[in-house]
Amino acid sequence: MRVAEAVGQGLARLGVEVVFGVVGSGNFHVTNALIAGGARFLAARHEGGATVMADAWARTAGRPGVVSVHQGPGLTNAMTGIAEAAKSRTPLLVLAAEAPEVRSNFHVDVAGLAAAVGAVAMRLHSPASALTDAHRAYQTTLGRRAVILAMPLNVQAAAWDGLAVGSGGVEGFILPGQIHAVQAAPRTYPPAPAAEAVSAIAAVLRGASRPVFIAGRGARGALGPGPRASARAELERLADACGALLATSAVAKGLFRGSPWDLDVSGGFASPLAAELIRQADVIIGWGCSLNMWTTRHGKLIGTGATLIQVDDDASALGAHRPVHLGVVGDVAETARAVADALHEGPGADDLGGEPRIVRDKTKDGGPPAAAGTPGAERALGAAGTVGYRSAELRERIAREVRWRDVPYADEGDRQRIDPRTLSIALDDLLPAERTVAVDSGNFMGYPSMYLSVPDEAGFCFTQAFQSIGLGLASAIGAAVARPDRLAVAALGDGGALMGVSELETIVRLGIPMVVVVYDDEAYGAEVHHFGPDGDPLDTVRFPPADIAAIGRGFGFDGITVRTAADLAAVRGWLEGARERPLLIDAKVTSSRGSWWLEEAFRGH
Ligand SMILES: Cc1ncc(C[n+]2csc(CCOP(=O)(O)OP(=O)(O)O)c2C)c(N)n1
Ligand SMILES: [Mg+2]
Q1: If phi over 0 gives left and psi between -120 and 50 gives alpha, with beta otherwise, what is residue 432?
Q2: With bands split at pLDDT 50, 70 and 90, how would you rate the model's confidence at 7?
Q3: What is the mean pLDDT of residues 457-472?
Q4: Among residues 6, 26, 4, which one has the least CA distance to residue 14?
């Protein structure tokens, strides 16, 4: 057996179930060995697509994604996807063949590439250590890292003598006959919160009259082998106890779906009511949420005098984007559970001793936090039935107004172009509730993110940490593979759709019954709307009309062009039919104005 085969089979036995990739000579044997070991291989048409598929699969399945690429250009093609995964803290293993000889035309500096995008570089160092090296690389992904495992061609080709003598003590990874016994090492649990921190949060919440929780990626669920569970139940129990309203960052959209206190996404995508209520909060807790410029609208959603608390299992995330009054290192679910217990038990002995411990930026907004809880005080109760922020009137108002689709607007469509809001609302009505929505980047991106509802947080795939266009289609494929029970919906701009177009073939070949909707304004709308008002020439960012429906049909899709709401009857027809081919909707959308979330985005440039 060659090392390549031993590594592939060893990784399969470790629990690698699904591998995306583009196979060349350098990753041929290792990929086949993964398949022989029981993994499912899905061929993409571009390594960028393959990597994003693996990333989206990992986000949706809650387990490390794996992608296999050829040496040199196979890896450089994958770099945008790797950067996205690294910035998003997706556990991703990139099996990258490597030409070790520097004069080889395929040689690239793998460690340099990895460092440049925040990924971890690892290597199969020698035939003897190869399995241990591979195992270590897989384990490293579980710390939510993107790992590039360089697989030198000479090491891969060497005979594997069945003895892994490297360090690491990986029992069962030693002899081929024993490989089946290998299990991924037990996941290491994130730190439990310190008792003092639990008391401090409880004390602040006891004094809060308008608390809001914003849950982020860290609340979406545990990563690692085994089933995933989000922190929803724990957060809701705590929110019930203190009367908090519930919101998420964009990546956790859907987490609180169905709760009457759900404000949906905080930040640029927040509806007017959600923004108003978040702005009026006196305590905001970010749960596994970085409270970055997107989630807070550059801080504008955080009211003057609001107490800001951040809970994260990664100490370096605390205060990284904005100063917080209290930063707590802890697992989201564990911390929420402990604080809820503390609230149910009433003020404990250690609460009575003084003010909650405030860390970082004690002088934010000119003074101590307004809601820093009088020790031992009873919760402020308002009108009958009011707990914290929650009242019967507010519940009704949220039900009536919080969804974007309930916000009045003037339809700007005509017979040639459909208003993207009208399009999105109509699709929200037509598409089955059990759906996974994946969104590309661009001016259009808020429409699907704000108007399409999703069944839960796994139903939304938002690969936008790197803000690259062209990732949406591959994201939808990875998510669809992870959740074949749900209809995958890829929402793309025409620019992103044509950038990632090669993966249309992958969808057809894999037989994924997906809906691809293109918000087609025949332009890089983001640039048009950003620079247009200044009178700059826009020829570089405008394109002649393209018949994207026909392009889709060429790949084997059912392709339709939508100019009016009436044209959407064809979507209903497809949904009610056998769905034998995937559906591509080329929606010719109005684009008279730039979007408000886009202006927000450009403020960061
Ligand atoms: C890989 C990459 N290239 C360029 C950009 C700059 N960029 C941001 S949005 C955008 C336009 C995207 O056009 P389209 O997909 O049609 O969406 P629209 O803005 O028109 O809604 C571009 C070129 C980017 N973000 N990523
Ligand atoms: Mg466009």
Answers
A1: beta
A2: very high
A3: 96
A4: 6
Residue 52 amino acid letter: V
- The tens digit of pLDDT for each residue in 483-516 reads 999 999 999 999 999 999 999 999 999 999 999 9
495 CA distance to ligand 1 centroid (A)? 6
**Atom 11 (ligand 1) nearest CA:** 524
- Establish whether residue 524 lines the binding site of ligand 1, counting it when its CB lies within 6 angstroms of any ligand atom: yes
Q: What whole-number distance in Å separates Cα of residue 203 and Cα of residue 343?
A: 8
pLDDT digits (tens, 9 = 90+) for 174-209: 433 333 333 444 445 567 899 999 999 999 999 999
Q: Which two tokens stand for residue 104?
A: 């080889």
pLDDT digits (tens, 9 = 90+) for 131-151: 999 999 999 998 899 999 999
Q: How far is CA 185 from CA 33, 129, 173, 441, in A?
A: 22, 18, 12, 37
CA of 271 relative to ligand 2 center, distance in Å: 23
Query: Which run of H or of E encompasses 451?
Result: helix 446-451
- Answer whether 468 contacts ligand 1 (Cβ < 6 A): yes
Three-state DSSP state, 589? strand
Q: Which protein residue's CA is at the shortest distance from atom 13 of ligand 1?
A: 524
96 has which bridge partners? 69, 150
How many A from CA of 6 to the centre of ligand 1? 42
Would you give the distance in Å from CA 29 to the centre of its chain?
32
Is 523 close to ligand 1, i.e. is its CB under 6 Å away?
A: yes
490 three-state secondary structure: strand
**For residue 493, which ligand has an atom nearest its CA?**
1
State the closest ligand 1 atom to the C-alpha of 519, by its place in the atom list counted from 1. Answer: 21
Separation of CA 444 and ligand 2 centre (Å): 7
pLDDT value at position 224?
43
Residue 467 in contact with ligand 1 by CB distance below 6 A: yes
- The secondary structure of 511-550 as a DSSP string is T---EEEEEE-SB-HHHHHHHGGGT---GGGB-----HHH
Q: Enumerate the β-bridge partners of residue 66.
A: 93
pLDDT higher than 60, residue 164: no
Strand order in the sheet with 92-98: 40-43, 18-21, 65-69, 92-98, 146-152, 120-123
584: tokens are 């591509």
> How many angstroms separate the alpha carbon of residue 524 from the centre of ligand 1?
5
Q: How far apart are CA 221 and CA 144, in angstroms?
A: 12
- Residue at 355: amino acid letter: E
Ligand 1 atom having least distance to the Cα of 441: 9
Q: Is the per-residue pLDDT at 54 higher than 80?
A: yes
